[in-house]
């Protein structure tokens, strides 16, 4: 909170839109210092610093120190700090601190979830939306920095769902998008080529709020997968009718949507379609 509405030292990580600030790094250092002190025998994975910590652990902390950096750099909501811990490939606890409001009036709301323990926003129990049809739904999606085949396929999905729903939003922060599905203010979120730190906390929030999470071709999901569809459950099948063939076409064309790399030595032995 001390860093909002102040000048930022902004640099690029590869493309003009893929930004990093001093605040990203400071936030990650703050998160990791707490986690390494409290859980010295766990593995850690941060967006800025990569994999570190104990080798061979059953637990992996996924830290996105500033999800939505471009929004943050421009003073535009939404952005968040996202932290979750996996046991093997399954998120078991999560916290997302979303920054809401805008310049001069910033505040936060905190999402928390525990496996089989529910999801909460500022201490209040969360439930997904009860909307049952796409024509009454508000959806949200995201686009990666690489304008490749998956980006183009998602642009077509964006066009389609804009026509058959009450709208599709693109906020630019996956953790926030997922938490909004869990909060019941949107009915679904989908995206290609995310990283574990983008999704780990948010997918647990959705699941514990009563939602459904799969890959975009309808397979069981793990945070190492490269596509995600999170919904209130009611509209899941209707969305898959379009995302499943689009994703299968990408795979047929040789587009790589294989699981993202698993940190060396991390004890993945279960979780969705990942093999033991």
From TrEMBL:
Annotated binding of Mg(2+), by residue: 47, 64, 66-67, 198
UniProt record similarity statement: Belongs to the inositol monophosphatase superfamily.
Cofactor(s) this protein requires: Mg(2+)
Pathway linked to the protein: Polyol metabolism; myo-inositol biosynthesis; myo-inositol from D-glucose 6-phosphate: step 2/2
The keyword Transmembrane belongs to this UniProt entry's keyword annotation: no
Domain of life: Eukaryota
Catalysis performed (reactions): a myo-inositol phosphate + H2O = myo-inositol + phosphate
Keywords carried by this UniProt record: Hydrolase, Magnesium, Metal-binding
The protein's name in its UniProt record: Inositol-1-monophosphatase
GO biological process: inositol metabolic process; phosphatidylinositol phosphate biosynthetic process; signal transduction
Source species: Ostreobium quekettii
GO molecular function: inositol monophosphate 1-phosphatase activity; metal ion binding
Transmembrane feature ranges: none
Pfam families in the cross-refs: Inositol_P
EC number: 3.1.3.25
Region annotated Disordered, chain positions: 1-21
């Amino acid at each position: 909170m001390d860093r909002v509405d102040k000048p930022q030292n902004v640099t690029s990580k590869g493309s003009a839109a893929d930004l990093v600030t001093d605040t990203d790094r400071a936030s990650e250092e703050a998160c990791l210092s707490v986690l390494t002190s409290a859980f010295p025998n766990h593995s850690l994975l941060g967006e800025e610093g990569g994999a570190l910590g104990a080798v061979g652990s059953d637990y992996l902390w996924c830290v996105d120190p500033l999800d939505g950096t471009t929004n943050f750099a421009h003073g535009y909501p939404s952005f968040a700090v996202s932290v979750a811990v996996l046991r093997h490939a399954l998120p078991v606890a999560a916290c997302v601190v979303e920054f809401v409001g805008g310049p001069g009036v910033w505040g936060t709301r905190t999402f928390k979830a525990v496996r089989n323990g529910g999801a909460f926003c500022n201490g209040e129990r969360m439930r997904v939306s009860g909307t049952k049809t796409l024509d009454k739904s508000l959806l949200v999606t995201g686009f990666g920095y690489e304008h490749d085949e998956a980006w183009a396929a998602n642009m077509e999905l964006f066009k389609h769902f804009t026509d058959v729903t009450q709208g599709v939003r693109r906020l630019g922060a996956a953790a926030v998008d997922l938490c909004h599905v869990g909060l019941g203010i949107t009915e679904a979120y989908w995206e290609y080529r995310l990283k574990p730190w983008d999704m780990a906390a948010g997918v647990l929030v959705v699941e514990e709020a009563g939602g459904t999470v799969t890959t975009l071709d309808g397979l069981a999901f793990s945070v190492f997968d490269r596509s995600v569809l999170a919904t209130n459950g009611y509209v899941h099948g209707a969305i898959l009718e379009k995302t499943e063939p689009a994703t299968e076409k990408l795979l047929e064309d040789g587009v790589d949507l294989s699981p993202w790399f698993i940190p060396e030595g991390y004890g993945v032995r279960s979780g969705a379609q990942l093999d033991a």
